[in-house]
Design goal:
mainly alpha
C-alpha cells in the first residue's frame, strides 16, 4: 500500500529534477510545470495516508515498515526512467521550437490531438517516446549512486517479488 504512492513520488521527483538539471526552469514546457510539483506534494500526502491505512489494515507497525524495503528497491527504476525520459522530452521540446515539430516514428498527426497539449509539448512527447530507450545510462551523470539499467531492473524485480511475498504472507496468515 505504501510502495505505490512512493513510486508516484519517485516518478514526479524524476520529472522535476530533469527540469532543474536541464536548467530551463519555467521555459521547459509550454504547460505549467507547477502541475507536477503540486502532484508531487499530493503524492506525499497520499503516502502518509496510505501508511495510516496500512497500519489500520495490518494492525502492525512491523508489517507497514516491511513495505519500505521493497519501496526503496523500486525507487531507482521509477525515478531514473522518468528522469531520463523527461530529459529526452525536454531536448525534443527544445528542438521542436526550431523544427516546427515534425513527428518522428510511429506517431501520426491525428494521435497528437489525443494528448492534453496537442501542440508543442505533445509533439515533443511523441518524438521523445519514439526515441526513448529503456535503461539509458547518461555518460555525464554526477549522481553519487547511479545504477545501470540492468541494476535498476534487478533491484525493481527483487522489490516487486518482496512486495508480492509480503502481501501473500499477510493474506495467507
Amino acid at each position: 500500500m505504501i510502495a505505490l504512492p512512493f513510486q508516484l513520488f519517485a516518478v514526479l521527483c524524476g520529472v522535476i529534477e530533469a527540469v532543474l538539471y536541464c536548467r530551463r526552469g519555467a521555459e521547459s514546457f509550454t504547460h505549467n510545470e507547477h502541475v507536477e510539483m503540486t502532484l508531487q506534494r499530493i503524492s506525499v500526502a497520499v503516502l502518509v495516508l496510505a501508511g495510516a491505512l496500512a497500519y489500520r489494515w495490518h494492525g502492525s507497525v512491523a508489517m507497514v515498515a516491511a513495505e519500505l524495503l521493497p519501496a526503496v528497491l523500486l525507487f531507482p527504476l521509477f525515478h531514473d526512467e522518468a528522469y531520463n525520459f523527461t530529459r529526452l522530452w525536454l531536448r525534443e521540446a527544445e528542438k521542436a521550437g526550431t523544427t516546427a515539430g515534425a513527428v518522428i516514428g510511429i506517431f501520426p498527426t491525428w494521435a497528437l490531438r489525443l494528448l492534453p497539449t496537442a501542440s508543442h509539448d505533445g509533439r515533443a512527447f511523441c518524438r521523445a517516446l519514439s526515441l526513448y530507450c529503456y535503461g539509458y545510462q547518461s555518460p555525464t551523470t554526477t549522481a553519487r549512486n547511479d545504477f545501470s539499467g540492468r541494476q535498476r531492473t534487478v533491484l525493481a524485480a527483487v522489490g516487486a517479488a518482496l512486495l508480492i511475498g509480503l502481501y501473500a504472507l499477510y493474506l495467507l496468515s
